[in-house]
């Protein structure tokens, strides 16, 4: 059974039980909304949050214009490598980072089902498929762990896979002392039985490193439990990562793996480049419903009149400026862009937005390595657990069903693409001894290549021979300054540090016609993700509907699943927390 979160509860920032009643029929919602004068909304930003906001508003009869500085889709978009397509082929496809859809995503899949796609009964949602396997790769001669999805056809369970996986598991168990394994199990049990009050009042203020008691533990305990679960998955450093955030994500992954609170399997990917499979159909659908897109328009200022936002000032790439008026405004630009809009006049009316200035960003950007041949034995997804730069990668030929690189992309000599996420830009690498922030683009490529080989070829086999590399593409958000010897990043990622929840805004602000959407807005997801951005857009629309006294039906919101079987223990913990006592299972 599912429960919808009402607009009133969204406005007070409280959480509700997970919910998913079907969206009210669009025709009746639109008819109700258009029974009165149509209202205009300016959505500032065309990333995940902005597109989700526009989707829900236009289906409720609002007149929507989206202003986007760079490209629709934001960090999720595909990035064509201009000029690489030859003889009728498409350009090779770059990306800010590969798209990964955990099973506990619920809001994003709901949106995807409502985006038409030719031949798909469930719209672009049918362009997702469950990962059949993931490889956890270790270095120093240790066997990798390959986790096959046994319920999927062709899941990849062979005798070789079974042998390597069992060997790897035995090695990991042997590498971590039994007492440390017991410690981690205990810390996980403490978290899942902690009440919401304790999670927000105690674990939100404690770094993950301290929570799992990593100091003085074995190297493998620190690498797996502390470092990989933070830098490798959410790009935040373990010494400053909020335990509440890391614990919630760990619980969500575990529960979705058990089929609880999940839309699909443990994880899914798209079967084509993101723009082909999702963003372009989405933009076509919204355009057909009447949304106007103003791309290449950077929002520079919010202009105030009589305690409200009267208009926004936007500028194109040539510096030409103009103002755009609307009845309502939804700020869906990234946090570093939103901060630039916080003038003294804005903060005087909405002082709660001051906390945006203290939110922290890190780098998590993509690198695509285009290959002349498909490397053997890699599978779909690889986690390079011991890499200093916390690399993860997908092999796109294993994902893009029906695509043939030589036929469809590039110059006919590219057979595959290894798409990497570089999650740690501050730790020195193994080749140049410098962090990624201090490496030129070519050095970033060479360092990533060396770190992958350090994992894949540490047992003597050849997986990535140097002649296999055809070309590469680094996320253009990364720009190298030779004089300074450093990179800059135009698209950083907001990460949840200790105590950051109190500084994040709710969808509704002190300015009556200004609302906030973005992965930094308070949501149940509590992490900078596509799901968090989508949820925030839905919450912003509900706040706007309430402020506008709109007769249109509210937007459904899904929150992270909380198993009712733990309610009794969490209630006991709530009483213990109020009495100043530790969790029942929290041993010294």
Question: Please, could you describe this protein's structure?
Answer:
Mean pLDDT is 88; it is low at 1-36 and 149-159. It is globular and about 70 Å long. Helix 3 (48-58) runs parallel beside helix 11 (274-289) and helix 3 packs parallel to helix 16 (530-547). It is built from 17 helices and 24 strands. The chain has 3 domains: 7-70 and 296-361 and 500-547, FAD/NAD(P)-binding domain (3-Layer(bba) Sandwich), CATH 3.50.50.60; 77-99 and 364-480, D-Amino Acid Oxidase, Chain A, domain 2 (2-Layer Sandwich), CATH 3.30.9; 176-264 and 566-578, no CATH class. It is α+β, with helices and mostly antiparallel strands and 588 residues long. 31% of the residues lie in helices and 19% in strands.
Question: Briefly, what is this?
Answer:
The chain is built from 17 helices and 24 strands. With 588 residues, the protein is α+β, with helices and mostly antiparallel strands. The strands form seven sheets. The chain has a seven-stranded mixed beta sheet with strand order 8-7-17-18-19-16-20.
Q: What is the secondary structure topology, with strand pairs?
A:
Blueprint: H1 7-11, H2 26-33, E1 40-44, H3 48-58, E2 63-68, E3 78-80, E4 93-95, E5 101-102, H4 107-113, E6 128-130, E7 133-137, E8 145-148, H5 159-175, H6 178-192, H7 196-201, H8 208-211, H9 219-234, H10 243-257, E9 267-270, H11 274-289, E10 292-295, E11 298-305, E12 308-315, E13 321-325, E14 328-331, H12 335-339, H13 344-349, E15 360-362, E16 365-371, E17 381-384, E18 391-395, H14 405-408, E19 416-422, H15 441-456, E20 469-474, E21 478-481, E22 486-489, E23 493-495, E24 514-516, H16 530-547, H17 567-578
Parallel strand pairs: 1-2, 1-14, 2-10, 7-17, 14-24
Antiparallel strand pairs: 3-4, 5-9, 6-9, 7-8, 11-12, 12-13, 15-23, 16-19, 16-20, 17-18, 18-19, 21-22
Helix pairs in contact: 3-11, 3-16
Protein name: FAD-dependent oxidoreductase
Keywords: Signal
Domain Amine oxidase: 48-545
